[in-house]
Amino acid sequence: MPKSVLFDREEVLRKVTTLFWEKGYHGTSMQDLVDATGLNRSSIYNSFGDKFQLYEESLKYYQGLQSELVNSYFAQAQSPKQSIISLFEGIRDEIIKGPGEKGCFLSNCTTELSHSEPRIHDFLVKNKERMTRMFSALIQKAQQTGEIASSKNARHLALYLFSSLQGLRVTSMLDKKRSDIQGITDQILSVL
Amino acid sequence: MPKSVLFDREEVLRKVTTLFWEKGYHGTSMQDLVDATGLNRSSIYNSFGDKFQLYEESLKYYQGLQSELVNSYFAQAQSPKQSIISLFEGIRDEIIKGPGEKGCFLSNCTTELSHSEPRIHDFLVKNKERMTRMFSALIQKAQQTGEIASSKNARHLALYLFSSLQGLRVTSMLDKKRSDIQGITDQILSVL
User: Fold this and answer.
1) pTM
2) CB of A192 closer than 8 Å to CB of A81
3) Cα–Cα nearest to A105, from A9, A169, A172, A12
4) CATH number for the A76-192 domain, one of 1.10.4030.10, 3.90.1720.10, 1.10.357.10, 3.30.365.10?
5) Which helix (H) or strand (E) segment is A164 a member of?
6) Chain A interface mutation, best of B111, B113, B116, B151, highest count of A Cβ atoms under 10 Å
7) Fewer CB within 10 A of the terminal residue: chain B, N end or C end?
8) Is B79 exposed, middle or buried (0-12, 13-18, 19+ CB in 10 A)?
9) Residues of B (90-129) whose Cβ lies below 8 Å from A
10) CA geometry: angle at B111 spanning B105 and B116, to 5°?
11) What's the complex ipTM?
């Protein structure tokens, strides 16, 4: 059994993801990664490749966790429109109760690397399209049942929801006051 | 006359701001600053202080430019509500026609440094409050003239506009398609 797998890969990824999320790609040094994981440099290189590959793996790991979270919000909802509301209210509550002001790893990654790293840009564009398709499908279902006015453009509304989510996460890094975050979320959802 | 002022300070700040905006604080090396400005390290240190002080000065310089831009949008508007619309439409057109996908320097700075650098956090919170007050004053004037329903909470609507602006700038780093950016902007403004 090679030395490089004598650790819990998911546990390491979890620690590394927290670090990249908090400090960004350029703000995280190889030494930070060694300190956070307890692994030496060669173990990290052997198991994950270089810093950039490790960062990419962290992004995918975070995206997987976010998908699980979204599904858990949807599971509580009784209708397509309620699914969207439940998602925003879940994120709102997470922001208000959350311990830190790290924002969203994917938004932070967008502002740091999307214009300089084509592979990261592609990953983020695909993530945006996936989320927009998800919102669009819910909006169209809600339009069929009359929950959302059929006069609204489903794609534009879906893009607006994606954009609003980015804005909420960035703003929450500067303002976690309950009434403010609640007020912004209510205004976002008033468009539905 | 000390050597350190034998250059155009604003021209240097303009170049440095473009660099920090594009590459972020941690992604910009001292060598990048030397290469972009044509100044040597000691001239930079003597005139602007260390990299962090230079970054702070760049943020203030960018904020000043943004204020001028906002005022130019407001100058075209016929009413308080139109001022808000004109600002969003101006930014929308800037995104669509703009050359790059650098986003907004202040949003990029928020995701990179607001949780780790208290001085930067304070600066960004003050900027958010300044913009929110500006939006709030316009909304209240528009409510007095009946342009915006007086039942709406001016502070929450102002925070929503600030948040929507962050979202639009982050999203535009992944999508500059005219109809998409136009669609998001229309949805944002439909709340007014």
Assistant:
1) 0.95
2) yes
3) A169
4) 1.10.357.10
5) helix A154-171
6) B111
7) N
8) middle
9) 100-103, 107-108, 110-112, 114-116, 121, 124-125, 128
10) 115
11) 0.95
Determine the residue type at A189. Answer: L
B22 touches chain A (CB under 8 A): yes
- Going from N- to C-terminal start, the domains of chain B cover 1-60, 76-192
The CATH superfamily label for domain B1-60 reads Homeodomain-like (1.10.10.60)
Fold of A1-61: Arc Repressor Mutant, subunit A (1.10.10)
Task: Classify residue A35 by its DSSP letter.
Answer: H
Evaluate whether B173 touches A111 at the Cβ level (below 8 Å): yes
Q: Would you call B174 and A115 a contact, using CB atoms and an 8 Å cutoff?
A: no
Task: Judge whether A128 and A159 are in contact, CB under 8 Å.
Answer: no
User: For each successive 10 residues of chain A (192 residues), what is the average pLDDT?
Assistant: 66 96 96 94 91 97 96 93 97 88 94 96 98 98 97 97 98 96 98 96
